[in-house]
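hey team, just a heads up i'm posting the complex here instead of the shared drive bc the drive is being weird again. everything in one block, sequence lines first with there labels, then the predicted structure for the whole assembly after. its two chains so it's a bit long, scroll down
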Amino acid sequence: MSISPQAFVLGLSAIGAGIAMISAIGIGIGQGFAAGKAVEGVARQPEASGDILKTMLIGMAVTETTGIFAFIVAIVLLFANPFINML
Amino acid sequence: MELGARKIFGNGNFYITETVIWAWIISAIMIVFALIATRKLKKVPKGIQAYAELIVDFVYNLVGQTMGKQNLRFAPYIGTLFIFILLGNLIAVFDIRPVPANVNTTFALATITFLLIHYNSIKSRKLRGYLKHMSEPNIIMLPINIIGELAFPVSLSFRLFGNITGGAIIMTLLYAALEKLSSLLTGKLPVFIIALPLPISFFFDIFEGILQAYIFTMLTMVFIANGMAQKEH
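-- predicted structure starts here --
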């Protein structure tokens, strides 16, 4: 049985998209740390909860950046595959 | 199943997608609302003017708290940005592709933020102070700082685009799956789409939309204020 080059490239691209999204582990851990520390802060000082929430959201948004880049790589591989035109 | 933005008209390399059309519609709605709300201003607000004052008050408070009272002149732009992204995200409730799910739109918004940061930084620090600010803590760090500054609009635009597009893709897949499932059971009538996607739609369309609009404007404000000289007061 022979695999056509298109099918080979598409299949490996799908695997690559999956591997790219492994970076989500890092974001999960990072955001979990941020949320945990924010809970500690609110428990210690409930009156500062508004400021803590704001700071936590900004920190989480910045943490997310690497994962968003990985996600962009994944959707480019899936929906705008650059390798299929190189065949 | 369509996952990209639909092209409405145009061909080749120049075309108008549905997200651009919705961006125009939202801009038109915002302009018309502003014109109607400020047509007959009264001392004691009533009706539509009261709502407009509520929004303006909220934005001025937010900007005053985040950027300091001396930077209130940014409030009109920040408020416009926030309401534009918010409405652009919230139209996803009606199964319309959200406006930031188009990387061109978000990159344009991030470019405006980038230009604002550096224009105001040069204006408030003067050229000498700006160059000194860019080469902190040492002159060797200047190229690295320049790369970091150039990466900022990219990360800002991709953050909004990635979050909203991810939500939109998951919602599209969910609707397709539920449609398929109900077509197996009842034929043409899509019974499963009635209430089942509600909690997921609430998270991805409403919560995520509000959060991302807030984060985009918040980062814009923080970085503009960061670039400017800190005045003693």
